[in-house]
Design brief:
By secondary structure, the protein is an all-alpha fold. It is about 65% helix and about 0% strand. The protein has a domain of about 50 residues.
């Protein structure tokens, strides 16, 4: 990286942010979804917003574009004859499927 990291709490970025989000979904502490978004309209609004921002309206796919990056890695693996990039592509595809599962679970049928 040539730039300074983003300002703000470390829990707002990367894997720490995902762990913080998971904690806030499960715990009933201050600021948790259970307290902030009680059942009804507040919860529906929060889930709809998360669904929209994770969806194709703000990217190409509902897989947080992990599948797009996996395609790039596959192409690079072919050009560079690098099998390790194919392995990385498979992991990105699995991550994309997990993101798609999360997206679908926000507003299930």
């Amino acid at each position: 990286m040539t730039e300074k990291p983003p300002k703000g709490s470390a829990r707002n970025f990367g894997l720490k942010a995902l762990q913080h989000w998971a904690d806030m979904l499960q715990k009933k502490s201050k600021g948790s979804w259970a307290r902030e978004y009680a059942t009804g309209r507040p919860l529906l609004a929060a889930l709809t917003t998360a669904y929209t921002f994770m969806g194709p309206a703000f990217g190409k796919t509902v897989q947080a574009e992990r599948d797009v990056y996996a395609d790039f890695l596959d192409e690079a693996a072919h050009v560079l004859n690098a099998a390790e990039l194919e392995n990385a592509a498979a992991l990105y595809r699995a991550a994309g499927e997990a993101w798609q599962g999360l997206h679908g679970s926000l507003l299930p049928d």
